[in-house]
């Protein structure tokens, strides 16, 4: 359909306003404005016109929808999102993106109303979340967009659709999202999702406790760099934890998550192991790396006694309260916890913590090396939106997922949840630049030391359960590290057969 130029510029102007966070005023300067101010307005206008030219391809690409959609009427869509207590923008941004897309489509002549029911749930039991979705799918009532389910399982089950067609169609728009994040949504040669944010692990420590141990401010500030260089290892920090416990400054030296997750895998990766072979598509167990990983957790729990042997199964709230209230020296966490501590009342006196408290009392670093001079690092990867195969409007759903990460929306989610931004342009978006100090620092060491370790195998869940079962036994001392390696390898070979590669 035809579109008047003035209307086109109005809609594109709206996009620019959203992207750069400023209203675009094309009106004549009011009378009485000094010449200097008038010239400044003209200069700003010309700069914004330049921005308009830069995103014109985005607008033209969106016009490609004309002819493939109804010309008028109401389109009803739904989305389910999940995460921690501070990840609610995963749902809210889909609502905002739906209204933005509606405005864009009206700008090209489609009198369409998009009604988006975007639901969010704070989830701690991911098995129950998956079951809830599976039941809805079985009943033919799945949402158009889902997040928080396993990509490989969902693709194999036919719950979600490949987005290859839409990625190819809108590829020029999508370059603002790093290529490695798109690689992370690939399985069997196809793309299955849209990156929504970037999760990174963070090794936290209590600055206030180190001060009580007699560390100077210079020593405390130097710790992250020494960890990054491999000068300070896990075992060095275990000694610090023992000292802090012995002096009654903390109850425990270390806490880790209560179930299997990426943070527990990092020592295995740092020891040279992989759980997935990209070339063959098979799962992997590296016996040498497994021994190093089990030895570390055995030492912390059974030898140095700085990690509870009941860590697995402890409630998340108890874990966060232990670290936030200074009863634990080191926490094997993630970037998003920085945001969670500012929103959830974990501190017994202060409740939700002001960020100033965190900067004063909490430090963060890479996950340490296992030996002097060894490699320190973190893992990183995207959270994903998926398009359900029952959606009547998969292309619209794809565009909504994409628009849900424009810089203003990406910034709101990043600053609220402390997940890293998903777009390059967000890093230069003024509100993010102004307020994203913690995320900037984390982004810096992720860029230098981050590892992307996607595991794209439908039976990874089985192997994870086995890893967790054996970690529990190691930490409780019912298996030695050597015994755990042999037991795990034997059990995994029996269960997974040819789908498993075992390396010495």
State the end-to-end CA separation: 65 Å
**What can be said about the biggest beta sheet?**
9 strands, mixed
Q: Look at the helices and sheets and give the structural class.
A: alpha/beta
Beta-strand segment tally: 14
Given as residue ranges, the uncertain stretches (5+ residues, pLDDT < 50) are 1-33
Q: What is the CATH T-level topology of one domain? A: D-Maltodextrin-Binding Protein, domain 2
What's the total helix number?
A: 22
Q: Approximately what portion of the residues adopt beta-strand conformation?
A: 15-25%
Query: What is the general shape?
Result: globular
Approximate helicity band: 40-55%
Please, what is the CATH homologous superfamily of one domain?
Periplasmic binding protein-like II
Instruction: Determine the mean pLDDT.
Output: 87
- Give the CATH architecture of one domain: 3-Layer(aba) Sandwich
């Amino acid at each position: 359909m035809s579109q008047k130029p003035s209307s086109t510029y109005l809609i594109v102007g709206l996009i620019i306003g959203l992207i750069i966070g400023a209203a675009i005023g094309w009106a004549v300067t009011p009378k009485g404005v000094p010449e200097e101010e008038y010239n400044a307005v003209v200069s700003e206008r010309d700069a914004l016109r330049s921005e308009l030219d830069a995103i014109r391809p985005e607008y033209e690409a969106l016009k490609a929808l004309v002819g493939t959609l109804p010309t008028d009427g109401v389109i009803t869509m739904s989305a389910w999102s999940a995460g921690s207590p501070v990840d609610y923008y995963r749902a809210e941004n889909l609502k905002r993106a739906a209204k933005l897309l509606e405005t864009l489509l009206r700008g090209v002549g489609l009198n369409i109303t998009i009604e988006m029911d975007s639901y969010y749930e704070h989830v701690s039991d991911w098995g129950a979340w998956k079951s809830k979705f599976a039941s809805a799918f079985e009943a033919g009532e799945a949402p158009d967009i889902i997040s928080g389910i396993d990509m490989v399982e969902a693709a194999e089950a036919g719950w979600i659709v490949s987005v290859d067609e839409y990625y190819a169609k809108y590829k020029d728009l999508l370059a603002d999202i790093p290529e490695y994040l798109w690689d992370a949504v690939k399985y069997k040669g196809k793309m299955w999702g849209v990156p929504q944010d970037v999760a990174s692990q963070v090794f936290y420590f209590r600055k206030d406790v180190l001060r009580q141990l007699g560390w100077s401010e210079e020593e405390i500030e130097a710790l992250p760099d020494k960890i990054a260089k491999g000068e300070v290892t896990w075992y060095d920090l275990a000694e610090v934890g023992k000292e802090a416990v012995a002096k009654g400054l903390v109850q425990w030296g270390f806490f880790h998550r209560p179930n299997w997750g990426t943070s527990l895998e990092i020592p295995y990766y740092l020891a040279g192991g992989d759980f997935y072979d990209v070339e063959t598509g098979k799962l992997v167990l590296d016996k040498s790396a497994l021994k190093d990983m089990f030895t570390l957790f055995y030492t912390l729990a059974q030898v140095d006694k700085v990690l509870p042997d009941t860590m697995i199964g402890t409630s998340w709230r108890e874990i966060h309260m232990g670290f936030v209230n200074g009863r634990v020296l080191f926490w094997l966490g993630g970037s998003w916890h920085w945001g969670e501590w500012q929103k959830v009342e974990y501190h017994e006196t202060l409740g939700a913590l002001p960020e100033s408290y965190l900067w004063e009392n909490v430090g963060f670093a890479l996950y340490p090396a296992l030996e002097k001079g060894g490699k320190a690092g973190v893992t990183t990867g995207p959270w994903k939106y998926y398009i359900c195969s029952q959606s009547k409007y998969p292309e619209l759903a794809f565009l909504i997922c994409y628009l849900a990460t424009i810089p203003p929306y990406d910034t709101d989610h990043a600053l609220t949840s402390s997940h890293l931004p998903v777009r390059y342009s967000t890093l230069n978006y003024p509100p993010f630049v102004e307020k994203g100090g913690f995320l900037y620092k984390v982004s810096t060491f992720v860029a230098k030391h981050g590892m992307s370790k996607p595991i794209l195998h439908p039976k990874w869940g089985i192997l994870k359960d086995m890893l967790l079962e054996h970690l529990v036994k190691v930490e409780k001392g019912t298996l030695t590290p050597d015994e755990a390696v042999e037991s795990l390898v034997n059990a995994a070979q029996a269960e997974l057969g040819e789908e498993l590669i075992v390396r010495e």
